Each structure stands twice: as C-alpha cells, then as structure tokens.
Amino acid sequence: MITSYLASLSGALAVRTSRGIVVTMSVQLLEYSSRELPDSLKCQILSFLRTTWPEDFVGPNRLRTWLSPESHHPLHLLLVENGILISHLEIKWKNLDHAGQTYKLYGLSGVLTYPAFRGEGHASHLVRIGTVRIRASGGDIGMFHCRPALRSFYTRAGWIPIDRATTLVGMPSAPVPSENLMMMLFLSDKAVAHRSDFEIEPVYFGRDTW
C-alpha cells in the first residue's frame, strides 16, 4: 500500500506507514548534475541498479561506474536522510526524430526506493516533482517507458499511457520492439497536433529505452 506524505516543515517529514504509524524523518530533497553528484550517493544508486537491473551491467559494462550518458543531460533528484539514500530519479532530455518532426523530449529514469523505505510515498513524491519540472521545461514531449504493471503508479502523476504505441530499440539497422509501456506528456502545440503519430508510427527511441 502506498501511503502519503503528511507534512514537510524545515526538513522534518511526517510519513504514515502502511501500518498506520506516523514516523518523523529528517529528509532532504537534493538535486545534482552527474558531475556534482557526491560519490557516496552515486555509489548507493549504482549498488541498487546493479542488483535490480543486472542486465545493464554485463559485457563491456560489467565494471560500469557511470549512471547515464552525459549526452542525456541527467539531473538527479534524491531524498536523503543522514547521508543514506532513500529514493532517487533522473530527469533526462534529448532530441527525438519521429514521423518527420523533431521533438525536444524529457523523461524520467532511474526511479528507485530502497526496500526499507517502500510504501511511504517517497518515489511518488519524486515523480510528482519531476513531472512538474518536465511540464515547465519548455520541451515538446515527455516520454519514458516502464513495465505495464507500473501504469497506474505513473498515471497518478499525470502521465498518459500510449497503449497502441510501438517502441523500437537497438541498432538503427535492425531495431526490435520493446516490451515496455510508453508513457507520455504532450507539452507543446506541435506535440498536441501530432499526438496520433505516436500511436500510428513506430518510434525508434535509441539503443535502449528510458
């Protein structure tokens, strides 16, 4: 059961757990570029990613120490207490060519909460903040991909599932369909006018999805 944030005053956060217990936490909301991200927090993020998505740490990436390519302009939002990572997400952007148009695309990635803090609304809180940032970004569209089981989690923050969309990933010469669900925001007039293109025309996203 996902529970809600009750208050946030001077860094003191009251959280109601799934058992109905109110816990006060001294949580900080921190924001860093990849170059600014402290090593201690970067290590905690990488440790989570390695165990949760091991397929991203094989072959030439077996000893990977980076979180996202700098070409995606990652911005990290973190909830931290006493130096311990509670929850994290990245906001990224890139240009996407699709159906004769070029869009400035913003998306969410790396959404995680450590197990001890799940069910307390932390990831939902970050997703809401990240979504507000993307809406104010001046971009054309918001887009990322998730497991179909997470559909309702992201729709609560205003994201739109594009059920009929086909996302292609891999090498441009031989892309393959992704099994993940495309989630979108249509932000600019151009994006609103061409919304149907994303349902009709397959979208080549790149080597992999966010």
Walk me through the structure:
By secondary structure, the chain is α+β, with helices and mostly antiparallel strands. The protein has one domain (5-206): Gcn5-related N-acetyltransferase (GNAT) (Aminopeptidase, 3-Layer(aba) Sandwich). It contains five helices and 13 strands. It has helices at residues 39-52, 122-135, 151-155, 189-193, 197-200, and strands spanning 5-9, 12-16, 22-26, 28-33, 75-81, 84-98, 101-113, 141-146, 160-161, 167-169, 176-177, 181-186, 203-206. A seven-stranded mixed sheet has the order 4-5-6-7-8-12-9, sandwiched between helices. A three-stranded antiparallel sheet has the order 1-2-3, with no helix packed on it. It has a three-stranded mixed sheet with strand order 11-10-13, with no helix packed on it. A hairpin with a 2-residue loop joins strand 6 and strand 7 (101-113). It is globular, with a radius of gyration of 18 Å. The chain starts with a strand and ends with a strand. Residues 1-11 have low confidence and may be disordered.
